[in-house]
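so my prof wants the structure for this chain in the tokens format not the other one, which i didnt know existed until like an hour ago. anyway here's the sequence
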Amino acid sequence: MIYHALSQEEAEKHDVQQLGAQRAEAFVKAFLKRSVPHMRQQLCEDQLQRKAVVLEYFTRRKQREKKKRSKGLSARQRRSLRLFDIKPEQQRYNLFLPLHELWKQYIRDLCNGLRPDTQPQMIQAKLLKADLHGALISVTKSKCPSYVGLTGILLQETKHVFKIITREDQLK
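here's what i got, hopefully its the right format
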């Protein structure tokens, strides 16, 4: 119990009217229920039976453990797993024609947003930012002379390398 009955002397000294034990217990339960609203009734009674309650302190809720997110693969791991390599059986020009059709639709939509009176610098900026995956491109300059004149659909674009599939189903 968190209270005890006052003696007769203390009650008279402080001019307090004494209540019966049952009324006093009912008062304490009602008071705790109002002052500590987040506690369930059973929990409140358990705390009254076992220990004292500090009214200005609320028990903290248990924090759920945060799930650890799996980290992505590093560049070295991606290269070792060959995630971006196109398998030889999938290196066929006909498989990538639908990608080229999608690219043509993308460029049409991009150019329809441009007006004829638009400045050439704006047009160049938009075309420079355009995605080229699926574009039909031709090589005009290269360090390797055998690549000059090569025409095909652009499949992959990295920092310094374009991967192109030719009509002869060769990936260059």
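also thought this was worth mentioning. Residues 27 and 77 are 68 Å apart (CA to CA).
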